């Protein structure tokens, strides 16, 4: 997305794109280097997802990620980008207990990392938390369907909202829009359900494993670039960086072993 104003994309810009029926993209980023690459590529929204847990920090899932880690990662993503809106996840344990805790955590992400919005998981239960943040001037993105922070309660990474469970996701989506979220992520839900919710809501609906009927799509960057070893079925690898990097590093190590790196070109006298 070109940014004629040379400023960061705003939540109003995203709403306008959706009103114009322009589909847009959001990608995860966890540090400065990828942030600068994705920003340069014109991706309008960078998500400092707590998927950093299993895609950057070597954890099994998102649950162990703590607020201090999110702040450190988000600060690097903000530093690495100029034009994208940077959204950071409120990690598990940093908001559920009360709207005040949610505000305290979001304020830290705003002041210490300088993100422009936060995302949190859940439906009606988190409406008071969302209202508190919005009341303080913090834009909030919602997240429904497969909410990874609840993976144990949900019994695994399974499609959500099939059959009669669909209605509760629809009700939650409407409640979040009414509470004021500027956008909503729908993860791992049937395409028909996601399409119906996107049609029903005015705010942008961002899909991941939710079919092509959403207003926008989000992807985990390591899935997109072929680094993840067992990527989810809904991700498509557009490059094979794992193979490229493995080959590159092996070549370099072999050159070191053979004494042919460094050459004169990399040498000072
Ligand atoms: O943490 C994350 O990266 C996310 C996306 C998968 C939506 O929440």
Task: Tell me what you see in this structure.
The chain has eleven helices and eight strands. With 269 residues, it is an alpha/beta fold. An eight-stranded parallel β-barrel has the order 1-2-3-4-5-6-7-8, surrounded by seven helices. The longest helix has 18 residues. The model has no long low-confidence stretch (mean pLDDT 97). Bound molecules: 3-methyl-2-oxobutanoic acid (KIV). The site of 3-methyl-2-oxobutanoic acid has 12 residues, from strand 6.
Bound small molecules, by name, code or SMILES, are: 3-methyl-2-oxobutanoic acid
State the total count of DSSP E strands: 8
Secondary-structure element series: HEHEHHEHEHEHHEHEEHH
Q: Which structural category do the helix and sheet elements fall into?
A: alpha/beta
Walk across the major sheet and give the strand order: 1-2-3-4-5-6-7-8
Number of helices: 11
Fraction of residues in H or I helices: 40-55%
Mass-distribution shape? globular
The CA-CA distance between the termini, in Å, is 47 Å
* Share in β-strands: 5-15%
Poorly predicted runs are none
Largest sheet: 8 strands, parallel, barrel
Overall pLDDT level: 97
Radius of gyration: 20 Å
